[in-house]
Prior knowledge:
Blueprint: E1 9-12, H1 18-29, E2 33-38, H2 42-54, E3 58-63, H3 69-83, E4 88-91, H4 106-134, E5 137-142, H5 146-149, H6 155-175, E6 180-187, H7 193-196, H8 203-209, H9 218-229, E7 240-243
Parallel strand pairs: 1-2, 1-4, 2-3, 4-5, 5-6, 6-7
Amino acid sequence: MNNSNNAKVAIVTGASRGIGKAIAFKLGREGYRVVVHYKSSEKAAEEIVESIRAEGGTALLYQANVAHSGEVNAMIQWVIRQWGGIDILVNNSGIMIDRWVEDISDEEWDELIAVNLNSVFYTCRAVIPHFKQKQVGRIINISSQAALTGSAQHAHYAAAKSALLGFSYSLAKELGPYGITVNVVSPGRIVTDMITSRENNRTDEWISQTPLRRLGQPEDVADAVAFLASDQASYITGLNMHVNGGLVMG
């Protein structure tokens, strides 16, 4: 594990729980210096930092509301000052609210789009000049199988995650000439609080629909992200990598 001042720097947004937590921990174990971003779950985020350090890794904590561009700009500049640069940006922050379309309020729609889509635009816009100057960089955006299949009671979520695909593909074309890759990881049904805390738990049904006959674990997504962040993925850009046990193919 390389934790010298030359180790690459990765920012993981929404890293206090679930998939983000697994990604941050995986990258820490791989030798990256990791910025563990959180919005409100400070104790949980601190535990991730401590876990990374306990494994011999290097991590810092940063609080911000990534739905606000000013806070995003401040975070990016803070990381550059702390560690001299950024190499990997993982946009994982997201929220889900169960609502039929006719029941979605203006405020709920705006909040979900702000967190799941606008935040990605803000972080990418803020880090691109730095990546262009370095002529290298990795952007990995976390979407969802809902972007391709839709999801009843989650039209606002699916809309944001679908838009994220178009944004990422376009960005891959814009940034390719600068040596910057942009890829997407689209998880399927992963065992996180988003699933287990919902009242209409349909675990058995979902398992029966999945060719691999199990739900995914956050670590399955983290492994995919770690690969796309690595040197082995230097010629991969504009990819939407499905991590869903075969539930969605193509």
